[in-house]
Specification:
single chain; alpha/beta; Protocatechuate 3,4-Dioxygenase, subunit A; five-stranded mixed beta sheet; 12 strands; binds benzoic acid; binds fe (iii) ion
Protein backbone atom coordinates (compact mmCIF):
# COMPACT_ATOMS: atom_id res chain seq x y z
CA UNK A 1 0.00 0.00 0.00
CA UNK A 2 1.27 3.46 -0.84
CA UNK A 3 1.16 6.11 1.87
CA UNK A 4 0.34 9.73 1.31
CA UNK A 5 3.53 11.74 0.99
CA UNK A 6 4.13 12.89 4.61
CA UNK A 7 4.44 16.64 4.21
CA UNK A 8 7.02 16.97 6.99
CA UNK A 9 9.40 14.58 5.21
CA UNK A 10 10.25 12.99 8.55
CA UNK A 11 9.57 9.36 7.61
CA UNK A 12 12.10 6.96 6.14
CA UNK A 13 10.40 7.20 2.77
CA UNK A 14 7.81 9.57 1.41
CA UNK A 15 6.08 7.07 -0.89
CA UNK A 16 6.49 3.57 0.56
CA UNK A 17 4.54 1.87 3.35
CA UNK A 18 6.73 0.80 6.26
CA UNK A 19 7.46 -2.91 5.81
CA UNK A 20 5.75 -4.85 8.62
CA UNK A 21 8.92 -5.81 10.50
CA UNK A 22 10.29 -4.59 13.84
CA UNK A 23 13.50 -3.45 12.11
CA UNK A 24 11.70 -1.36 9.52
CA UNK A 25 9.44 0.07 12.19
CA UNK A 26 12.44 1.14 14.29
CA UNK A 27 14.04 2.75 11.24
CA UNK A 28 10.83 4.70 10.67
CA UNK A 29 10.59 5.73 14.32
CA UNK A 30 14.23 6.88 14.36
CA UNK A 31 13.57 8.72 11.11
CA UNK A 32 10.76 10.61 12.79
CA UNK A 33 13.32 11.99 15.25
CA UNK A 34 15.71 13.25 12.59
CA UNK A 35 14.60 16.86 12.68
CA UNK A 36 14.68 17.33 16.45
CA UNK A 37 16.67 20.54 16.59
CA UNK A 38 18.20 20.34 20.08
CA UNK A 39 21.19 18.00 19.51
CA UNK A 40 21.27 16.70 23.10
CA UNK A 41 17.53 15.99 23.07
CA UNK A 42 17.94 14.22 19.72
CA UNK A 43 20.74 12.07 21.13
CA UNK A 44 18.67 11.15 24.20
CA UNK A 45 15.54 10.37 22.17
CA UNK A 46 17.45 8.31 19.57
CA UNK A 47 18.97 6.13 22.30
CA UNK A 48 15.69 5.91 24.22
CA UNK A 49 13.79 4.80 21.11
CA UNK A 50 16.43 2.20 20.22
CA UNK A 51 16.52 0.75 23.72
CA UNK A 52 12.73 0.85 24.11
CA UNK A 53 12.17 -1.08 20.89
CA UNK A 54 14.97 -3.51 21.70
CA UNK A 55 13.51 -4.08 25.17
CA UNK A 56 9.96 -4.74 23.88
CA UNK A 57 11.33 -7.14 21.25
CA UNK A 58 13.58 -8.92 23.74
CA UNK A 59 10.75 -9.68 26.17
CA UNK A 60 8.15 -10.04 23.37
CA UNK A 61 5.93 -7.52 25.15
CA UNK A 62 2.18 -8.18 24.84
CA UNK A 63 -0.52 -5.53 24.51
CA UNK A 64 -1.89 -6.41 27.96
CA UNK A 65 1.58 -5.92 29.47
CA UNK A 66 1.99 -2.58 27.69
CA UNK A 67 -1.35 -1.46 29.16
CA UNK A 68 -0.29 -2.56 32.64
CA UNK A 69 2.98 -0.63 32.33
CA UNK A 70 1.20 2.51 31.14
CA UNK A 71 -1.29 2.22 34.01
CA UNK A 72 1.67 1.97 36.41
CA UNK A 73 3.16 5.20 35.02
CA UNK A 74 -0.21 6.99 35.28
CA UNK A 75 -0.50 5.92 38.91
CA UNK A 76 3.06 7.14 39.63
CA UNK A 77 1.92 10.55 38.37
CA UNK A 78 -1.31 10.48 40.37
CA UNK A 79 0.58 9.56 43.56
CA UNK A 80 2.85 12.61 43.12
CA UNK A 81 1.99 15.99 44.61
CA UNK A 82 3.40 18.67 46.91
CA UNK A 83 3.42 16.19 49.83
CA UNK A 84 4.95 13.18 48.07
CA UNK A 85 7.06 12.57 44.95
CA UNK A 86 6.43 9.01 43.79
CA UNK A 87 8.41 9.67 40.59
CA UNK A 88 11.60 10.33 42.55
CA UNK A 89 10.95 7.21 44.60
CA UNK A 90 10.66 5.20 41.37
CA UNK A 91 14.00 6.52 40.03
CA UNK A 92 15.49 5.66 43.43
CA UNK A 93 14.27 2.06 43.75
CA UNK A 94 15.34 1.35 40.16
CA UNK A 95 18.90 2.46 40.97
CA UNK A 96 18.58 5.15 38.28
CA UNK A 97 19.11 8.10 40.63
CA UNK A 98 22.30 6.54 42.01
CA UNK A 99 23.55 5.79 38.49
CA UNK A 100 22.92 9.33 37.26
CA UNK A 101 24.71 10.70 40.34
CA UNK A 102 27.74 8.54 39.59
CA UNK A 103 27.76 9.58 35.92
CA UNK A 104 27.54 13.23 36.91
CA UNK A 105 30.35 12.89 39.47
CA UNK A 106 32.71 10.86 37.26
CA UNK A 107 35.43 13.52 37.04
CA UNK A 108 35.08 14.50 40.69
CA UNK A 109 35.38 10.89 41.86
CA UNK A 110 38.52 10.34 39.78
CA UNK A 111 40.04 13.38 41.53
CA UNK A 112 39.10 12.37 45.10
CA UNK A 113 35.76 14.20 45.40
CA UNK A 114 33.11 13.00 47.82
CA UNK A 115 30.78 10.32 46.44
CA UNK A 116 27.30 11.60 45.66
CA UNK A 117 24.07 10.01 46.88
CA UNK A 118 20.52 10.57 45.75
CA UNK A 119 18.44 13.38 47.26
CA UNK A 120 15.36 11.20 47.67
CA UNK A 121 11.80 12.46 48.21
CA UNK A 122 12.16 14.19 51.61
CA UNK A 123 14.24 17.36 51.15
CA UNK A 124 12.03 20.35 51.99
CA UNK A 125 12.28 23.88 50.63
CA UNK A 126 12.80 26.62 53.22
CA UNK A 127 14.56 24.54 55.84
CA UNK A 128 15.39 26.77 58.82
CA UNK A 129 18.64 28.73 58.65
CA UNK A 130 20.59 27.94 61.82
CA UNK A 131 23.95 29.13 63.19
CA UNK A 132 26.84 26.72 63.38
CA UNK A 133 26.80 24.71 66.59
CA UNK A 134 22.98 24.85 66.85
CA UNK A 135 20.79 21.94 67.86
CA UNK A 136 18.49 20.74 65.08
CA UNK A 137 16.54 18.26 67.26
CA UNK A 138 13.60 19.62 69.27
CA UNK A 139 13.69 18.94 73.03
CA UNK A 140 11.12 16.14 72.72
CA UNK A 141 13.16 14.17 70.15
CA UNK A 142 14.25 10.87 71.72
CA UNK A 143 17.54 9.08 71.08
CA UNK A 144 21.29 9.30 71.62
CA UNK A 145 22.94 12.64 70.91
CA UNK A 146 25.02 13.15 67.77
CA UNK A 147 27.46 15.98 67.11
CA UNK A 148 28.31 16.59 63.47
CA UNK A 149 31.57 18.41 62.82
CA UNK A 150 31.87 19.08 59.12
CA UNK A 151 34.20 20.81 56.71
CA UNK A 152 33.70 21.67 53.05
CA UNK A 153 36.89 21.50 50.97
CA UNK A 154 37.98 21.84 47.36
CA UNK A 155 39.60 18.85 45.65
CA UNK A 156 43.02 20.27 46.53
CA UNK A 157 42.07 20.53 50.20
CA UNK A 158 41.33 24.26 50.48
CA UNK A 159 38.47 25.20 52.85
CA UNK A 160 35.42 26.62 51.06
CA UNK A 161 33.81 29.46 53.03
CA UNK A 162 30.20 30.64 52.71
CA UNK A 163 28.89 27.38 51.26
CA UNK A 164 25.20 26.64 51.83
CA UNK A 165 24.85 23.25 53.56
CA UNK A 166 21.37 21.72 53.67
CA UNK A 167 20.86 18.79 56.03
CA UNK A 168 17.89 16.62 56.99
CA UNK A 169 17.46 13.26 58.68
CA UNK A 170 14.90 10.84 60.07
CA UNK A 171 14.29 10.65 63.81
CA UNK A 172 15.38 7.68 65.96
CA UNK A 173 11.81 6.46 65.29
CA UNK A 174 12.67 6.16 61.58
CA UNK A 175 10.36 8.92 60.29
CA UNK A 176 10.98 12.32 58.73
CA UNK A 177 9.22 15.18 60.47
CA UNK A 178 6.74 15.64 57.59
CA UNK A 179 5.64 11.99 57.91
CA UNK A 180 5.23 12.12 61.68
CA UNK A 181 2.53 14.15 63.52
CA UNK A 182 4.53 13.69 66.76
CA UNK A 183 7.47 15.79 65.53
CA UNK A 184 7.68 19.57 65.42
CA UNK A 185 7.55 21.33 62.07
CA UNK A 186 11.03 21.27 60.45
CA UNK A 187 12.49 19.09 63.22
CA UNK A 188 15.87 17.57 62.24
CA UNK A 189 16.23 19.89 59.26
CA UNK A 190 18.49 22.91 58.79
CA UNK A 191 20.47 25.11 56.48
CA UNK A 192 23.98 26.17 57.58
CA UNK A 193 26.69 28.35 56.10
CA UNK A 194 30.32 27.34 56.30
CA UNK A 195 32.66 29.68 58.19
CA UNK A 196 35.98 31.07 56.93
CA UNK A 197 37.58 27.64 57.53
CA UNK A 198 34.88 25.86 55.54
CA UNK A 199 33.45 24.43 58.74
CA UNK A 200 29.86 23.77 59.80
CA UNK A 201 28.61 21.93 62.86
CA UNK A 202 25.42 20.99 64.67
CA UNK A 203 23.98 18.89 67.47
CA UNK A 204 21.35 16.32 66.62
CA UNK A 205 20.31 12.77 67.49
CA UNK A 206 21.58 9.56 65.99
CA UNK A 207 19.16 8.71 63.15
CA UNK A 208 17.54 5.31 62.62
CA UNK A 209 17.07 3.38 59.41
CA UNK A 210 13.59 3.32 57.95
CA UNK A 211 11.35 1.71 55.36
CA UNK A 212 10.76 3.68 52.16
CA UNK A 213 7.09 4.63 51.60
CA UNK A 214 5.26 1.57 50.25
CA UNK A 215 1.69 2.93 50.13
CA UNK A 216 1.84 3.70 46.38
CA UNK A 217 2.72 1.97 43.09
CA UNK A 218 6.43 1.79 44.04
CA UNK A 219 5.40 -0.26 47.08
CA UNK A 220 3.46 -2.62 44.80
CA UNK A 221 6.52 -3.07 42.60
CA UNK A 222 8.79 -3.75 45.58
CA UNK A 223 6.31 -6.37 46.84
CA UNK A 224 6.14 -8.04 43.41
CA UNK A 225 9.94 -8.18 43.40
CA UNK A 226 9.91 -9.45 47.01
CA UNK A 227 12.56 -6.90 47.90
CA UNK A 228 13.76 -5.53 51.22
CA UNK A 229 12.29 -2.07 51.79
CA UNK A 230 14.77 -0.67 54.32
CA UNK A 231 17.32 2.13 54.10
CA UNK A 232 20.28 2.18 56.50
CA UNK A 233 20.40 5.10 58.97
CA UNK A 234 21.85 8.22 57.33
CA UNK A 235 22.07 11.99 57.25
CA UNK A 236 21.47 13.94 54.05
CA UNK A 237 23.62 16.83 52.86
CA UNK A 238 23.46 19.16 49.88
CA UNK A 239 26.34 21.62 49.52
CA UNK A 240 25.90 24.59 47.19
CA UNK A 241 28.43 27.34 46.54
CA UNK A 242 29.31 29.46 43.51
CA UNK A 243 32.26 28.09 41.53
CA UNK A 244 31.71 24.43 42.53
CA UNK A 245 29.44 21.65 41.35
CA UNK A 246 26.62 21.06 43.81
CA UNK A 247 27.19 17.97 45.93
CA UNK A 248 24.17 15.98 47.14
CA UNK A 249 25.20 13.13 49.37
CA UNK A 250 24.38 11.06 52.44
CA UNK A 251 26.51 9.71 55.26
CA UNK A 252 25.46 6.24 56.39
CA UNK A 253 25.86 4.56 59.76
CA UNK A 254 28.17 1.63 58.99
CA UNK A 255 26.92 -0.14 62.13
CA UNK A 256 23.31 -0.24 60.91
CA UNK A 257 22.19 -3.85 60.21
CA UNK A 258 20.98 -2.71 56.77
CA UNK A 259 24.21 -0.87 55.92
CA UNK A 260 24.88 -3.15 52.95
CA UNK A 261 21.25 -3.64 51.83
CA UNK A 262 20.01 -0.18 50.89
CA UNK A 263 16.76 -0.54 48.90
CA UNK A 264 17.72 2.50 46.79
CA UNK A 265 21.41 1.54 46.32
CA UNK A 266 22.65 4.84 47.76
CA UNK A 267 25.04 3.50 50.39
CA UNK A 268 28.16 3.36 48.22
CA UNK A 269 31.90 3.53 48.86
CA UNK A 270 33.23 5.75 51.61
CA UNK A 271 29.78 7.13 52.46
CA UNK A 272 29.48 4.34 55.04
CA UNK A 273 31.10 5.74 58.19
CA UNK A 274 31.35 4.78 61.85
CA UNK A 275 29.78 7.27 64.28
CA UNK A 276 32.30 7.53 67.15
CA UNK A 277 30.91 7.12 70.67
CA UNK A 278 32.04 9.60 73.38
CA UNK A 279 32.42 8.56 77.05
CA UNK A 280 29.01 10.16 77.86
CA UNK A 281 27.30 7.79 75.39
CA UNK A 282 26.62 10.41 72.71
CA UNK A 283 28.03 10.11 69.19
CA UNK A 284 30.23 12.23 66.99
CA UNK A 285 30.64 12.36 63.23
CA UNK A 286 33.63 14.10 61.69
CA UNK A 287 33.01 14.81 58.09
CA UNK A 288 34.86 16.23 55.12
CA UNK A 289 32.95 17.00 51.95
CA UNK A 290 35.11 17.59 48.86
CA UNK A 291 33.67 19.56 45.94
CA UNK A 292 34.69 19.66 42.29
CA UNK A 293 35.07 23.07 40.62
CA UNK A 294 32.21 23.80 38.25
CA UNK A 295 28.79 25.32 38.03
CA UNK A 296 26.54 25.42 41.06
CA UNK A 297 23.04 24.04 40.48
CA UNK A 298 20.05 24.21 42.80
CA UNK A 299 18.48 20.75 42.58
CA UNK A 300 14.73 20.23 42.14
CA UNK A 301 13.14 20.21 45.59
CA UNK A 302 10.70 17.30 46.03
CA UNK A 303 8.74 18.99 48.86
CA UNK A 304 8.24 22.63 47.82
CA UNK A 305 6.11 23.64 50.83
C1 LIG B 1 15.68 9.21 51.61
O1 LIG B 1 16.83 9.00 51.80
O2 LIG B 1 15.15 10.12 52.24
C2 LIG B 1 14.93 8.35 50.67
C3 LIG B 1 15.51 8.00 49.48
C4 LIG B 1 14.81 7.18 48.61
C5 LIG B 1 13.56 6.73 48.94
C6 LIG B 1 12.98 7.07 50.14
C7 LIG B 1 13.68 7.89 51.03
FE1 LIG C 1 16.69 9.74 53.89
Amino acid sequence: MKLENPSDGSGPSDREAIPATPEALLAAVLGSNQRTSDPRLKQILDALLRHLHEFASEVQLSYAELERGLDFLVRIGKATGPEKHEGILLADILGLATLVGLIDAKKSLAAGGTEPALIGPFWRANQPIRPNGATIASASTPGAGLFVDGQVLSLDGKPIANARVETWQASPGGLYENQDPEQEEMNLRARFQTDENGRFSFHSVRPAGYAVPVDGPCGELLALQRRDIMRPAHLHFIVMVEGYKTLATQIFDADDPNAYRDVVFGAVGSLLQRFQQDPDGSYRLNLQLRLEPGTMRIPMCPLPN
